Amino acid sequence: MALPQLLPSPSSSYLTHHRLNPHTLSFSPSNFNSISLPHRRRHHRNHTSSLRCSSSSFSEKHENTPSPNSNDIVELPLFPLPLVLFPGAILPLQIFEYRYRIMMHTLLQTDLRFGVIYTDATSGTADVGCVGEVVKHERLVDDRFFIICKGQERFRVTKVVRTKPYLVAEVVWLEDRPSGNGEEDLEGLASEVESHMKDVIRLSNRLNGKPEKEAGDLRRNLFPTPFSFFVGSTFEGAPREQQALLELEDTMVRLKREKETLRNTLNYLSAASAVKDVFPSSSSSSS
Predict the structure, then answer these.
(1) Range with top average pLDDT, 162-166, 200-204, 207-211
(2) Does residue 70 surpass a pLDDT of 70?
(3) 13-24+40-174 CATH pick, 2.30.130.40, 2.30.42.10, 3.90.245.10, 3.40.50.620
(4) How far apart are CA 170 and CA 75, in angstroms?
């Protein structure tokens, strides 16, 4: 599932647009270029990857499994991509570049885990990424691989160990810290975010001539933190905003930011819907 695009993706040439989503809802909204979102970026090193990949979609459920100790420092092979992987999300990739085929051969003999880290030509490579664990793979002709990986814990790069044949870095694990104001209601905020998502879905369906059906249960029993990651994973087309959400270490702050983004998107869709009501013939002829 993906909400309307919030920004045109600068790296759309990397995307194959074949999605895996076990929870396909009864809508398929078109992409809208609505608002320019603020973004905060940190830059790291180099290496933009030239592989094809699809946008991430959320898996059936991201369990609250114990994360590694945040003080642990481990070495992790890194895969720079023009997209953001969130914990619990599913990411299908076709790997054909030689250095990453080498990496895959190594991963298949070890623990099947590597770091997905966002990169683009403007901002460089981020410091914070998400572990992708290979859950299914197929070796194709010419030693290419098709893999499906699932987002696990987040990490921050502390030191680059080597850059050839592929990037390897020392990382520390990231976990959300308790919110500063313990009196605020995380569950209530998560419910508000879910409600905004449903409104966005409903208006998106309406603008695309689809039935305005109730989206149903979007949280699917997820606790606020994994739910906030799920919401971030739906903001396809706005990778820098997704990266900013991934880097936050406070669930309350992340949900508040997502609520504001959804509210802005909803305002845009409401305006577009009003224009369609006033000029129905011109809307249909332009499409």
Answers:
(1) 162-166
(2) no
(3) 2.30.130.40
(4) 4
